[in-house]
Fold:
Amino acid sequence: MSARAAVVEVPFLDLGRQYRQIQPEIDAAVGRTLESGRYVLGEEGAAFEREFAAYCGARHAVGVASGTDALHLALRAAGVRPGDRVITVPNIAAPTACAIVAAGAIPVLVDVDPHTLTLDPEKLRAHLVAQPAGRRARAAIPVHLYGLPAALDEIGRLCAVHEVSVIEDAAQAHGAEYAGRPVGTHGHLSGWSFYPTKNLGAYGDAGMVVTDDPAAAEQVRMLRSYGEEAKYANRVVGVNSRLDELQAAMLRVKLRHLDGWVAARRRLAALYDQLLAGAPVTRPVEMDPARHGYHLYVVRSPRRDALQQHLRAQGIATSVHYPVPVHRQPAYQHLGYAEGDFPCAERACREVLSLPLYPELTEDELRHVAAAVSAFR
Structure:
């Protein structure tokens, strides 16, 4: 009897590989920060704000404690008040909706384009035209899902006509571009996450608000630190949401590598595209003028769960981003939506499957994944 071939294990993500590549730089940044004796709102944070603003091509960046806080405080800085309505999409993780609720606002959902899975401009247009005068949206949050920019030009034009502020959810879009410019600078403000799994990830929670509006930036600076305009002088009711110095120092190191990492992601995604051309899945799209950052490589299959089990048997770890749309989550049943209200988003949640993709993934590992996907029947 012949022995069974050994299973090739492919992790969905291995952050240790990245750390080992840049360990001397990270360790030096940590040591420098610890020796400084300044751990909150110091020079490392201020320097990272300047450097990230420059990377985005923006005038201002304000570090906060998480991506969720970034969206929450961006909404407040944009003038969103309790009871206001904020538009976003259903096929996302809960943090976007959590940020809207944290600002006291009401999430209003609009379906996605069936190909890009981002906010559909035509459906947004229909919603904005039909909304009652007393229930008009104050802001819209297009989500650059999986690293693919939403249709920012069309969304921006529609929102300008209807006096709706655009706040980009760029949590998954580090290194992505739209119309030749980095995302995060096409709306009034943008919210960024540096959660460890992101293209630019910290070693814990961290976030950033980016804007060209100096007044909005100053408002976020006050809001993140108890609403203080000066020590013990509270001008507005704020929160405690500050990017700590250790995370900022390590993110400064990683920012220097970001373009190379995104280029690697794009190369690997192109190889997936080539190898999966005849596979029984729908591959992700990239349509001009959007340039994908490939935070995730997400395929679609009507037999998603069976495909995931098939890959698991081949030693391949995958994930689902995201299995349950916002309006079907128990926490958001009060919004009054029903199953079937957003058919494109709901279908996506049933079909999407994220394959391993990160800069340190080897070509041999990727080929093993692609072969297993192609063999699925």
Remarks:
- The chain has two domains: 18-255, 257-374.
- The first strand starts at residue 60 and ends at 64.
- The chain has twelve helices and 14 strands.
- The mean pLDDT is 97.
